[in-house]
Amino acid sequence: MTILVTGGAGYIGSHFVRHLERKKIDFVIADNFSTGHKKLVKNKKFVELDLRDPKEISVNLQDLDITSIVHFAGLSIVSDSQKMKKEYYENNVLASMNLAKFALEKKIRKFIYSSSAAVYGIPEDIPIKENHPTRPINNYGKNKLEVENLLKDLSMEFPLDVVCLRYFNAAGADDNGDLGEEHNPETHLIPNVINSALNSSEFTVNGDTYKTNDGTCIRDYVHVNDLASAHLLSLNFLDFNKGFHIFNLGSEKGFSVMEVINECQKLMKTEIKVRIGEKREGDPDILIADNTKSVSKLNWKLEKNTLRTIISSAIDYHKNAL
Of residues 140, 167, 210, 221, which has the active-site annotation? Predict the structure, then answer.
């Protein structure tokens, strides 16, 4: 079994690759390094290609014995998706279409897709179940839903078995302390709070008028290694369950921005200077997953399901990266 891991030089993809290495499972990474890091594929089997070009896919992957695809590659900054519609469509939708077409041509039956809770939009109910209406409020979420729908249609017409994994907030770093979150620019809360503490710089909170106890928005954080394990479990699930399937990946716990900041301050034994900025338009008050389905159907176990564990691992990584 050789797994094609697209975006394997990125944050979540690289943690999945390490999970495969620990399980001694064969893989090949495909990445164009537009947001991923070449240092993360050092001494690993990889091909550099752009999924937007079907010829590049065919030339680079045609002769490889690929048995399944785990598709992480894509652009993921929500605010950029609003300003760069064409680029996001090409990288997130068109590239996924090309990859799915290649899977059909090569008779690769198993396809795992990295989707997002952004497909839900403003939630009507908390926690959010997989059957919640999908009404994305930004182009990033719209693109993710377009790919989900495409894969669903293909799975009904062709021998393609699909799992779409809707992530909530990926966070944390590997236990070894050498693999973690490294985006440029960094947009995620936890690494930005940690960097503010390490650099003694001011941290801006985007609004404090949300309908929550402390006025800051609440999110569901899930450790990146727990996310990684869910992808391999999804491949195993498709051995016995054909067709199209959707699973939430979250912790079922919600923490506000201020709770995250306070936990960072405790763990780092420092005070972070906080400034209250403008509230982001269309930002939901609360996003928390219902992961009952993924736990019961995939036999998924969250090994690192506390905010302290998640933040501690991220702190270790960022200190090592200095």
Answer: 140
Torsion of CA 189, 192, 198, 199, to 10 degrees: -140
Bridge pairing between strands 221-223 and 169-171: parallel
3-state SS track over 42-65: CCCCEEECCCCCHHHHHHHHCCCC
Q: Say if pTM beats, i.e. exceeds, 0.85.
A: yes
Q: Are residues 126 and 261 in the same domain?
A: no
Q: What angle do CA 36, 39, 44 make, to 5 degrees?
A: 95
Domain holding 76, by residue range, is 2-170+223-249
Ramachandran assignment for 119, one of left (phi > 0), alpha (psi -120 to 50 degrees), beta (any other): alpha
Number of continuous H segments (helices) and E segments (strands) in the chain:
11, 14
203 located within any domain: yes
User: How confident is the model over 213-251, as pLDDT tens digits?
Assistant: 999 999 999 999 999 999 999 999 999 999 999 999 999
- In this structure, the dihedral spanned by the alpha carbons of residues 229, 234, 235 and 239, taken in order and rounded to 10 degrees, is 140
Upstream peptide bond of 123 is cis (omega within 30 degrees of 0)? no
Q: What sign results for the dihedral spanned by CA atoms 37, 257, 221, 95?
A: negative
d(CA 74, CA 56): 16
Cα 304 to its chain centre, rounded Å, is 16
Q: Is 113 an annotated catalytic residue?
A: no
Concatenating the DSSP letter of every residue in 72-115 gives --S---HHHHHH-HHHHIIIIIIHHHHHHHHHHHTT--EEEEEE
Domain membership of residue 298 (yes or no) is: no
Q: How many residues does the chain have?
A: 322
The secondary structure element, H or E, covering residue 276 is strand 274-277
Domain identity same for 265 and 159: no
272: left (phi over 0), alpha (psi -120 to 50) or beta: beta
**Digit-coded pLDDT (tens) for 110-139:** 999 999 999 999 999 999 999 999 999 999
Mind listing the pLDDT tens digit for each residue in 85-108? 999 999 999 999 999 999 999 999
